[in-house]
Every structure is written in structure tokens, then in C-alpha cells.
Amino acid sequence: CLDHCPVPPELAKHSFGAEKGQGIACEGYVRIPRPGGIKRGWVKEYMVICDFKLFLYEISPDKGLASQEIQQVVDMRDDDFTAAAVLPSDVIHANKKDIPCIFRVTTSEMNPPGSQHQILLLANSEKDKENWLVALKNLHMILRSKNL
């Protein structure tokens, strides 16, 4: 876990703690739209859900491994945080076979009041998408129930 996210050393020895949402809940490869949108294709990244945050890491093109540099961080404690599957009308430029594997994470972080930031994510399969969504929704429920 220390390689992926800033977990205090005393907690890093333990696996994911569902009660507190600490540690790595889920990790794996996803794709995000290239700059310019879905029409331009997708870029592979490594995503880690850890300590109520989503960490997205670039993949090194020459090695095919996640780099140590964090590309993006999304805090699930954001009041407007949601994670949901998309509709075909949400991703009109996506390949039809990809649509069942696409989901969206929405936050309001660092945006003007009333506006939202959305990240589209393409999982490797429908099953992977469901696993990501279940992990995100379960952690979000823990956050809300514990007022963390």
C-alpha cells in the first residue's frame, strides 16, 4: 500500500479495513479518454482505490507498468461524489462494444459552485466495471454512515 498511497505506517501492515475504509480496497487497469475526448480513443492507466480516494497513475509506454507519478486524485469525501454506469447517450462517440464497460465518477472538487467534474473510465470487462462500482459505492456508503 505504501507504494500506492499515503497510508500511515501503523495501518499499512493491515489489509483493507472495511469499517474505516483504510487501505487498498480495489486496484487494477482502466482506460480514460485521450485529451480531446472519447473520439480520439482511450489511454490505459492504473487505478487504486485507497483511503477514500481514487488514484490514477500513468502507464509507462516503454515498460507497460504504472509509473510512480500520480496522474489524478479524486477524493470520495467530496459532497457531490458519485459513481455510476453510463447510458449510450452519455458516450455517443464511444465504440458500441465498449459502452457496457464504461462508468463515470463525478465530483465538484476545484470547480466553480454548481459545476461538476466527470471522469469517464473504461473497465476491461463488464464484470470489472461492476466490481469497481460496487467497491466505490460500498466505500461511499461507509463514508456517509460514519460521517468521515
From TrEMBL:
Pfam families the record matches: PH_MRCK
Domain called PH: residue spans: 23-141
InterPro entries, sorted: MRCK/ROCK_PH (IPR057529), PH-like_dom_sf (IPR011993), PH_domain (IPR001849), Rho-assoc_Ser/Thr_Kinase (IPR050839)
GO CC terms of this entry: cytoplasm; cytoskeleton
Any one GO BP annotation for this protein: actomyosin structure organization
One MF annotation (Gene Ontology) recorded for this entry: protein serine/threonine kinase activity
Name assigned to this protein: PH domain-containing protein
Native organism: Arion vulgaris
Lineage: Eukaryota, Metazoa, Spiralia, Lophotrochozoa, Mollusca
